[in-house]
Design brief:
about 80 residues, single chain, mainly alpha
Length: about 80
């Protein structure tokens, strides 16, 4: 099976950039969730001084948005 995305450049330039940035966006989301997990579980990382209840709510919110959008997990 093969999938090919085609864009008419330059008029579809924004859509082309969005498609190319998809993996990077998934990595950013994963990094944010990992940082929240580190703060909650190990009290380490950039977010270690943040309120745990707020971090849990943000994490749940992100997971819900990922699920609603059916975003794939990174492996």
């Amino acid at each position: 099976m093969e999938a090919i995305l085609k864009f008419n450049l330059p008029e579809d330039q924004h859509d082309h950039k969005y498609a190319l940035a998809g993996t990077d966006a998934l990595i950013v989301i994963s990094d944010i969730l990992s940082e929240i997990r580190s703060a909650l579980k190990y009290e380490s990382g950039e977010l270690k001084d943040c309120d745990a209840d707020t971090l849990e709510k943000v994490s749940d919110f992100i997971y819900r948005l990922k699920q609603d959008r059916q975003l794939p997990e990174l492996y």
